[in-house]
């Protein structure tokens, strides 16, 4: 289902865009100003008036930075594991030096 819109919002919380259409999970936006974007690890220049289809979570109603991305639980768990392993190895080395 596609809904026709015409409201001003902010892409990635920084760039002024007009939402043209909304569908499930995606919106079609029209750039209201020139900006640089990254698509597939490549920087591209988006000109005023260009339309793009983007995920709806990247479009905000107010100007502002997007919330900080939290570290994945796996990364935090691995960091703790590595710290614990390093501490154990240092204890072993300290015991070997005492002998």
Description of the structure:
- The structure is a single chain.
- With 99 residues, this protein is α+β, with helices and mostly antiparallel strands.
- The chain folds into 2 domains: 1-67; 69-99.
- The chain contains 1 helix and 7 strands, in the order βββββββα.
- The strands form 2 sheets. A 5-stranded antiparallel beta sheet has the order 6-3-2-1-7, with no helix packed on it. Strands 4-5 form a two-stranded antiparallel ribbon.
- Strand 1 (3-11) and strand 2 (15-23) form a beta hairpin.
- The radius of gyration is 23 Å and the shape is rod-shaped.
- The model has no long low-confidence stretch (mean pLDDT 83).
The gist of it:
The chain is of the alpha+beta class. Helices cover 26% and strands 41% of the residues. The strands form two sheets. It has a five-stranded antiparallel beta sheet with strand order 6-3-2-1-7, with no helix packed on it. Strands 4-5 form a two-stranded antiparallel ribbon.
List keywords for this structure.
alpha+beta, two-stranded antiparallel ribbon, 1 helix, rod-shaped, about 100 residues
Number of domains: 2
* Helix-strand category: alpha+beta
Shape label: rod-shaped
The count of helical stretches stands at 1
Give the averaged pLDDT, no decimals: 83
| Helical amount | 25-40%
Number of strands: 7
Widest sheet: strand order?
6-3-2-1-7
Percent of sequence in beta strands: 35-45%
Compute the CA-based radius of gyration.
Answer: 23 Å
N- and C-termini, Cα separation: 75 Å
Largest sheet: 5 strands, antiparallel
Weakly predicted, low-confidence segments = none
What is the succession of H and E elements? Answer: EEEEEEEH
């Amino acid at each position: 289902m596609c809904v026709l819109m015409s409201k001003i919002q902010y892409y990635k919380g920084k760039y002024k865009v007009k939402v043209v259409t909304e569908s499930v999970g995606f919106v079609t936006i029209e750039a209201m100003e020139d900006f640089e974007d990254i698509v597939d690890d490549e920087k591209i220049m988006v000109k005023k008036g260009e339309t793009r289809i983007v995920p709806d979570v990247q479009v905000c109603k107010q100007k502002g930075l997007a919330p900080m991305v939290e570290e994945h639980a796996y990364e935090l768990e691995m960091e703790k594991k590595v710290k614990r392993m390093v501490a154990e190895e240092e204890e072993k080395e300290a015991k070997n030096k005492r002998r």
